[in-house]
Specification:
With about 375 residues, the protein is α/β, with parallel strands linked by helices. The protein is about 40% helix and about 10% strand. A five-stranded mixed beta sheet has the order 2-1-3-5-4, sandwiched between helices. Strands 7-6-8 form a three-stranded parallel beta sheet.
């Protein structure tokens, strides 16, 4: 059964600006959807009196921005925020059983930016435990018996279901790209450090990225222009030249995914795009190993003090990653961090030599797995992250 509905960010912005849609009616519509469907999808953490709170916060927004022509672009639009971001007025649990007081602090910088642009916080979205592999209860709105992906599972599912037109998540390996693919929405992860991570519980500080989801590509552009530092829209009078990363990396994907991928590539070629098949990531096993070691070592460092007191409250998967990280030497960590730069320079050189504007690759090695015990494999996203 499908739990999906239309909720385009750019359309909603346009309708509010024209007066066709009021923020009050938008709040009621989204809360009605949550009341009707989220007991099944479980994208958001439960909240009593959500609707009443949102209407009160909207009244405060009207007082803050009394002149319609001067209201910011996201005025009155409720959005979802992954539950590893600190948000004033909300507990932060990070999908864990640890006391939320451990994660209190100043509101996340990107949340402040969103609020300054008129956004309302619809609620906290479900995450896997500490943005790792232990899944939460969220189902895929296209088929509730399949995973929405992780770790930004609730954020992707919320946008897919139409509970909100915009939601924020994070990616350390594949937590934006994979759930976006599984849930049939747009996911955007900019380059490292383009969106400030201050106020977000870290996973691996050398690889953590903030990103977001929408149902519409125009909504991605609007949001990026607000939250990505030094944002600049590039225009061109020609189609971009597209690169396909051939070799061991691409072979990690299943035959089913590769069939769909090559079909999409063929469609682009038929539309006049130049496609270049370029050997890339032949050392993918080494890239994968170093990235995972870096993640484990830095995850272990984040949780070293918390684990001492609350070890029994961690899920097995998270504990195993902490224990793995404890065994990784500083030399190995330094080597793994340095490898980020090496990989980036290699890809940039190959891209320049072949006049590649954009790379295309699958977002996941398989379709969304059945069941909620696994969020799927992020391996196709890893080298790009």
């Amino acid at each position: 059964m499908r739990y999906i509905s239309e909720c385009s960010l750019s359309s909603i912005i346009s309708q509010i600006k024209s007066g066709e849609l009021s923020p009050e009616n938008l709040i009621d519509d989204l809360c009605d959807k949550l009341d009707k469907w989220d007991t099944k999808v479980r994208a958001f953490l439960p909240e009593l009196n959500r609707r009443k709170r949102l209407h009160m916060e909207l009244s405060e927004l009207y007082n803050k921005f009394p002149i319609p022509e001067e209201r910011p672009v996201l005025f009155g639009i409720p959005i979802g925020i992954k539950d590893i971001f600190i948000v004033d007025g909300f507990e932060t649990r990070a999908g864990s059983d640890l006391p939320p007081e451990l994660f209190s602090g100043e509101e996340a910088e990107v949340v402040k930016i969103l609020k300054s642009n008129g956004a309302l916080i619809l609620g906290k979205t479900v995450t896997t435990e500490f943005a790792y592999f232990h899944p939460g209860p969220t189902g895929n709105p296209y088929n509730i018996n399949h995973t929405p992906g992780g770790s930004s599972s609730g954020s992707a599912a919320a946008v897919s279901a139409g509970f909100c037109p915009l939601s924020f998540g994070t990616q350390t390996i594949g937590s934006i790209s994979r759930p976006a693919s599984f849930c049939g929405v747009y996911g955007f992860k900019p380059s490292y450090n383009r969106i400030p991570t201050k106020g977000v519980i870290p996973f691996s500080i050398s690889a953590d990225h903030i990103g977001f989801f929408t149902q519409d590509l125009k909504g991605i552009e609007i949001t990026a222009s607000l939250v990505v530092s030094n944002w600049n829209t590039i225009t061109s009078d020609r189609k971009p030249i597209l690169g396909i990363p051939e070799g061991k990396y691409l072979q990690q994907a299943s035959s089913e995914v590769l069939e769909a991928f090559h079909k999409a590539v063929k469609q682009l070629k038929n539309k006049g795009f130049i496609i270049k098949h370029i050997p890339l990531f032949d050392d993918i096993e080494d890239i994968n190993a170093k990235h995972r070691d870096m993640n484990a070592a830095e995850f272990s460092s984040v949780h070293s003090e918390w684990k001492k007191q609350y070890k029994e409250k961690y899920h097995k998967a998270s504990l195993e990653l902490i224990q793995k990280g404890e065994k990784i030497s500083q030399e190995r960590l330094k080597e793994a961090i340095e490898n980020k730069k090496i990989v980036r320079e290699k890809v940039s050189k190959i891209q320049e030599e072949n006049n590649i504007d954009l790379w295309l690759s699958p977002s996941a090695p398989t379709i969304a797995p059945k069941g909620l015990d696994s969020t799927g494999n992020p391996i196709m996203n890893l080298p790009w992250t």
